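Re-run requested by the PI after the first attempt was lost when the workstation crashed. Everything re-entered from the original request form. Ligand of interest: manganese (II) ion.
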Amino acid sequence: MVLREIADRESAQQQPDAPRVGYQGEPGAYGEVAAAAHGGIPQGYASFEKVLEALRDGGIDEAVLPMENAVVGAITEALEPFAQAVVDGLELVAVGLTSVPVRLSLAARPGTPLNEVKRAWSHPAALRQCTHRLAQLGIERVVCYDTAGAAQIVSHDASTDAAVCSRRAAERYGLEVLLEDVSDKEQNGTRFVHLRMADHARAQVPLAFLRTSSMTATGRLDVLTGATLLPLAGNAEFPVRMWVLGADAARLQALAPVRDVQVVSLGQPAAQAARMVPPKQGSEPVVKSLPHATARKPLTIVEVGPLRVGAGARAMIAGPCSVESPEQVMRIAREVASCGATALRGGIFKPRTNPYAFQGHGLDALEWMVAASKATGLPIVTEVMAVDHVQAVAEKADILQIGARNMQNFDLLRAVGRAGRPVLLKRGAGATVDEWLGAAEYVMAAGEARVILCERGIRTFETATRNTLDLGGMLAARPLTHLPIIADPSHAAGRADLVEGLARAAWAAGADGLIVEVHDDPARALSDAEQALVPARFAELSRALALHPDARLPLMQLRAWVDAIDHDLAALVQRRLEVAKVIGESKKQTGRAVLDPRREAAVRRTYKEAMPGSSDLADKLVDLLIEAARAQQSIED
Ligand code: PEP
Ligand code: MN
């Protein structure tokens, strides 16, 4: 065990870029496990204050602090100095989280009988985790700075005292484990946060420190944001102080609209603030009666060939409303594929308001879609309307769509749930978010875990649009379900001229994808003619959403694509120069040095990370940008 550990450490040290990660405690402490978790070289310190000082002074690259324990909740011993450092102006960002399973042992010097142990040493947070067990054993608790430190103290002591620590720490200091697992709860674990200096890294974990004098300002914050609240004791000035893990600062500010609420964010950069927050993981479903659809589990990713949707992966499903002929669907499939679509849509059974309107070409049309799918590599998404058709459609289609009008056709939901294919579930035009999730539950309870939710507009008093795209409903569903949620701007708008705007709005709000109707001769389309985008407009939309075209697209279109990127790039460079100038002014006002080599190194890292495989180009770009920024900030070289 110990040998293995030494070997691990040596290999970590050989890694030239391995970060030095500070933790509080002696070797063998749980903090050391967290510090080593991502290839870091652990460095122990006597107190949390010392760890934070080392981070500030550059003695370490990263710090790990325990935030939360499964048995006792907030680890205030670490959270208090952390809060103090932040209030004092230390600019930290949270770059990761590590959960370390905790099994606390009672360990003493070899040969010590259990009934002679009268005192146990450990870190106060660890002692709190076994309050009841130790009381039952009649053992008094003695506070020291660390679990592994306790083992070390006991090993040097001639008494019959014990330590509460990991088996690893016990063995490291030559102690014998008298009792395994003395925590009051069986499932024990501690969550550590990894911190870096703000100018050294980009944030990844939404984490904020919040304090206020208003007791009511923060009520239900955990329910509203899905965040974990880690409370600290209040003081006269700020009766409410807490760490909020899992909600971004902009949202906290918006939810706690009281003037004296102070939020210090160590979280996501502003550009990501609009990202939707999925449900917090845990054991109970978000909605008890919907255990599948609202389970607290990692985000579901549905993957079929080039289509990947969920957990950050975004789908672009495109094609005609109705499959009208083999040639029509083949042409449109090629068009949308060349613009970066990841699946082909097309109706073979059409749910029409008027019974005399075109009803679809049925299973023949499915064969035409299969040919188009083979030619382009795009998987097929098509609506199934009747239980009797499910099996035949599932044999050839890749994803079964349930239309808005059938969202509560429970027999059909159960039937598609048993068909062995992913299901795209449209929200009914008159369905609430809860009813929509209830429909997903039907499909999932029948056996199909791969459900994609689709917001396609609800019926309101408005007649200017066919439906009202309910992005609020889509956002409200996000913290309730792990399932991917996409939007259908075409059926929401009912008008081609509004499709791009709605599509961009849904994309910006964090939709996991879009389903868009495209037709190359809308005037002659057999259904939904008014809302179809022609291929060139679809190409514009795809460009705006940063999809990748392929070489099948005509050269003129490809050039337009790259021109649009150049325009964006130039505008971003201009914005960067303007912001850099403001930074220069701010630094001059506050008397800080305008040049900062650590910042430059961080900028360089950002570019290299974003441009894998083009390291030289990244370097040259950074050189140019820094030179230009210096000129802006009027600094002599
Ligand atoms: C469709 O996608 O063609 C369709 C009929 O959609 P909805 O069920 O959302 O009206
Ligand atoms: Mn349609």
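Saved to the shared folder this time. The radius of gyration is 29 Å.
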